[in-house]
Amino acid sequence: MIGAMRIDLHSHSSVSDGTDTPAEVVAHAAAAGLDVLALTDHDTTAGILEAAQHLPRGLTLVPGIELSCAYQGSSVHLLGYLFDPDHPELTAELQRIRDDRVIRAKTMVERLQAHGVPVTWERVRALAGEEDGRNVVGRPHVAQALVEAGAAEDVQDAFDRWIGSGKPAHVTRYALDPVRAVRLIRAAGGVCVLAHPARSEGALTHAVPDDLVERMAEAGLNGIEADHPSHDDEERASWRRRAEELGLVVTGSSDDHGGLTGRRLGCCTTEPDAYAALAAQASGAEPYVG
To answer: Domains in the chain, start-ordered, CATH in brackets?
Structure first.
């Protein structure tokens, strides 16, 4: 008997802040028994082609992205799928975001050095693989450098002690308004889902405000990622109800970052009907089928 289709719509590779290459991510997805995987690196689609070229037989790859947004000083993340990667306005915004990521990381290194922490930009850049111009540098790479330097016990400690919001080396950066981000993805023919809405900077106490979710829905938001490893049962149920109230699709995803998250692909999944509903509303790109 054929088992139920297993769909994971949120994963990261070494092109952003995951530890595995795009080719390794799809291999792990197949090994985990997934039928559909979305690769959603932060603010870039640079890993999609490599993942597609190494796609195992029987696995469908959904090209996607996780957009960095901000609202009233808090981070809000938006997952975009099946959009036109060459859409001019979206492309320009992504380039601006990536450029500012580099500026931010360099400034963080400078602040850490001013505090006597022996972290270098060269090491952060190497950890990100940024030298080839494809990979996106992010705070997790700075955090890894802090751990290597002995200034933090692990990545979470690096955020809590040094680079999280309000900490000594924290630096803000350019990020999209969430409502505008929804409109950009939809204008590019894509569909979008609000990512881990009960989580902000790794904490469960900073949910995305209801009024913002409503405005995002009015702008064309298609779904809410209710089932996420960082959400407890109560939060999952609450966000499922909110999605139903707004007529939005409910998704479940692992938000896998390779070794950083214990290679948890498939730990949370999306129902086939929900995936079909999302794909039916997209016109910017097609999934890759292995």
So the answer is: 7-93+174-289 (3.20.20.140), 104-163 (1.10.150.650)
d(CA 215, CA 265): 31
Q: Which residues contact 128 (CB under 8 A, 6 or more apart)?
A: 105, 135, 136, 137, 138, 141
> Which pLDDT tens digit goes with each residue over 83-113?
999 999 999 999 999 999 999 999 999 999 9
CB 287, CB 279: distance < 8 Å: yes
pLDDT value of position 1: 31
| pLDDT tens profile 5-36 | 999 999 999 999 999 999 999 999 999 999 99
The pair of structure tokens assigned to 127 is 């950890």
Which DSSP string do the residues of 36-48 spell out, in sequence order? EEEE--BT--TTH
Helix, strand, coil percentages (3-state) for the chain, rounded to 5, are 40, 15, 40
In our burial notation (b when 16+ CB lie closer than 10 A, e otherwise), range 249-271 reads bbbbbbbbbbebbebbbbbbbbb
pLDDT at 129: 83
